[in-house]
Amino acid sequence: MEKRGLNKVDLIFEKVDPKEVLSKAVKMKSSEIIQQVLDSGLKGRGGAGFPTGLKWKYTAAVKEPEKYVVCNADEGEPGTFKDREILDKVAYKVYGGMAIAGRAIGAKKGIVYLRAEYRFLLPQLMKELDSFHKLMKDISFDFKINFCLGSGAYICGEESALFESVEGGRGEPRNKPPYPTTSGVFGKPTSINNVETLVTAMMIIKHGPESYSQLGTKDSRGSKVFSISGDTPTPGIFELELGMSVQEFVNEFGDGDTKAVQVGGASGFCVPRKRFPYTVIGFEGVPTGGSMKLFNSSRSMYNVLHNYLDFFAEESCGQCTPCRVGCQQLLKGVQKVKKGEVKSTYLNELMKLADTMKVASKCGLGQSVGNAFKTIVENFREEIIY
Amino acid sequence: MINLSINSQRVSVQPGTTVLEAARKLNIKIPTLCNHSDLCVAGNCRVCVVEQTGAKTLIAACAMPAAEGMDIQTNTLKVRNARKHIVELLLSEHRSDCTKCYKNQKCELQALANEFAFGDTIFLDLVEDHSYTIDRSSPSFIKDDSKCIRCQRCVRTCTELQYISAIAVANKGLHQKISSFHNRPMSHVVCTNCGQCVNRCPTGALVEKTYIDQVWDAIYDSDKHVVVQTAPAVRVALGEDLGYDPGERVTGKMVTALRQLGFDSVLDTDFSADLTIMEEGTELLLKLKKVLVDGDKKTSIPMFTSCSPGWIKFIEHKYPEFLSNLSTCKSPQQMFGALAKTYFAQKKRLDPLKVVSVSIMPCTAKKYEADRPEMRASGYKDIDYVLTTRELAVMIKQAGIDFRNLEESHYDSIMGDSTGAAVIFGATGGVMEAALRTAYEIVTGREVPFKNLNITPVRGMEGVKEATIKIEGCKPEWKFLEGVELKVAIAHGLVNANKIMKQVRMGKSPYHFVEIMACPGGCIGGGGQPIPTSMEIRKNRMKAIYSEDEHMVLRKSHENPDVIGIYKEFLGKPNSHVAHELLHTHYVERESY
Amino acid sequence: MYHLGNLVKELSDKHGRERESLMPILQGIVERHNYLTDEAMVEVAKELDISAAEVYGTASFYTFLDTQVRGKYVIRVCKTITCSMKGKSEIIQTLEDMLKIKVGETTSDKQFSLIETNCIGWCHKAPAILINELPYTELTPEKVVEIIKGYMQRK
To answer: Reading across the β-sheet that carries A68-73, which strands appear in turn?
Structure first.
């Protein structure tokens, strides 16, 4: 298992001159941009981890004059707050990343989908957008960005649900295929990327792919912004190289009594203390969009699980059976086990249900509910039962 | 062509074919629930999940397009476990009172449970955690949320086929439900009662409001004379609920069965359909005179037919400014009703108070129509009870009648005679064809210039049909129509009605006369017809309707001896004062939401 | 109604009358009137030529497009795990005591509504709330009292 240790990085929040980077980008060929991003090994920073270069390559290949770059700023995964910080501090780099993506795929239009809970950022974001548009005009870079606001729905962070919302509908994920690369927002080829991914892409164009690709591991190249909270003396936002073990992470950020780390939010995995040294934070181990929550021994993992299941039961879009009903069954099930109203062996049935949800749900939300459920029940069974 | 393999069997399909369709080509059955041949793909129930070699998750067969080299397995352990769980999950949020449910033995969830989920219940009951509502506000149907499995077929039907979108998916997560505008009772929103949603609901969440017990009560009441009328579309579909294939005509046996059930007079809506043609044909010609000769600005064309109560409620809500374009004629059901307790009661020397008037309809909106406050021309409620085709089948089974082995018999007289023109009312284009057969002959003295009187341009399943008929060689009193190219249109399904009305609203409608039926296919596809429905089933029923027409001796409404008789003895002439009192109606402007 | 009809027309002129204009129009109405009345949804349905049930079905999907009565200041208290661990219950208790309403309710003078919401992205400064669009973080019962007093004194 490749490990890199805990190393702080300063890339995302580094101040750059947007004119310099974008003037460079506007002169590059689409294939050049895509090759650099491919060489860097950058994978999506929202949590799904799709290779960004590939996404841009596929979208670029579609013969269609109208294409879109969508910035997914619907950060809603519990424990994730790094995109808010990025938008607050370096919005111009988000816009720059979108413009570069646009150049790569052949899109002239960009949409930022901003969650309702971050609406307070809008005045400032619009001011920055004005400056961005002026700059783009100056350097003759044809790419315009519009904002779309969310209205409070975690599921709209799912790419096709986001498109549905932009188009004025309920945020219900679509059947795939077709994928966004061929049919995304308004049915047009779309590259939808996370806020952090777009900023990273801009930095890769600025610095070139080599330095970025030297960081991280083979499967998890580069660095990432983490949002750390819970039982930690140093909650906040930290940019770290990918590939550290959970143990190394806890050594730095724990309060000395860390019992479990939830990596990837409610849809992520719960790593128990005994697994800390053997679990890598990255796509080959436990992937994350940035959310890292530490729980010490005073915390009840039943409460944690209950909180997550309650979250999913509410935030599920409700259209597909395994997720809509499955979330309710998991929640009611653990409640009844805890109260002693059903035998503790019922948990085994629920584990099987979690497996069904993983393979039969229509979208990533339903498919991920089982992650937290299984890892918490497997590792903290007594806390659920007693 | 795309080549793929399903359960190790190879099949080649056109691009765009789904895995489900490809499996059907191989006669491999994959269970489905939210899928319906009339509607767009949903892919939300997940019952049809199958395993694709190389894919991380199972795929929904109904939504996945077949791809070259795909390898699909429909019955692996993974699939079976998932399928069982999914059915169990659906059952856990469903109020299973199958023994008391109207859809017992006809419920698609029940069938799936029987195939995949019999035995001990795995999961916890969730019904007790939800405060489900049962909406009985409409006289036509009942919406029982406790049985809803959220397949969204009803929503897709109401949007894609019927345009009106009276119901939509609301809320999310555990609160997700199918709802009217802000949970209002269905009787208080734009719902047209067309029942197309009822036809497509897989469970007992949407069923018609039944009046079977009330009709039995009337039949057993020796004091009452129960009159029954049967709509044209019933006779070509009733058999489906009694073991016949779609499209088999069971008219004679149906009449016998009705007598055996105990109805005192078995009469035919087709009689009043012929009557409608007389009234409406005359109305049209008078209107054309006003427009073409008198230049009357207050008379508006095109004139619309008015026999489809779903269509009537639609135009009342959505295009109320064009109510004066509607024919003032009542529907055949309501014309019959007005006459049953007046003309018929007189002829049979019955006290109208003791006459109970029942209709068997392929329709759920007719239950609403019968309840409309203005439908009391006889001085009493003109139609007491409306039963759907489905309800009649239930009564026949309840009475233990061996339908298949019944002798055929004829309707009673006075209001039981009919023509081929009447029976084709059941199909889209039928009213138009019947009207043309009569109107053309009234005006020119000659039969319509179509072989065998079959006006084929107005027939068929196309959403909007158009035809132009040149009127030549007119009789002297109709010479103002000489050379006129009569332009007509026929629309079925409210989404097509809307197309016509949009054009009218823009002032661009080129037609003189338009027939509109709320239901796809016309009445043969009505909300009260046997379930399931599909394009193929409706086409078969339609064929049977035209077959009935061809086999009748009289094929033009004005030749119906009962109709000739009623004018001579009772009504005088079409559009007379008496006719207006009993057989014509007015409409109501309604809110657009 | 006159006022509302004008607002809907204004918003439609600004955002368009296509289906994709629906969300910004509904958001605009909520911004002005705190929630969506039936009248508002019907006006939007008429303006955009879509069914009222569709408007309601879309609006009710989104937590911030309330179709039930909300006050001028909507207080949303985060109930996701970190805020829950760091004292959300005390915050709720304080607010319930101060405003004399329970979670889910609106004060009778229609000034404040108190509801719970899911993760609003301030976990490192939990417990946190939103009052309309503004976040308030690192809360204690005392801080909450000060904040609400400030709102109560506004005109």
So the answer is: A144-149, A109-114, A68-73, A190-194
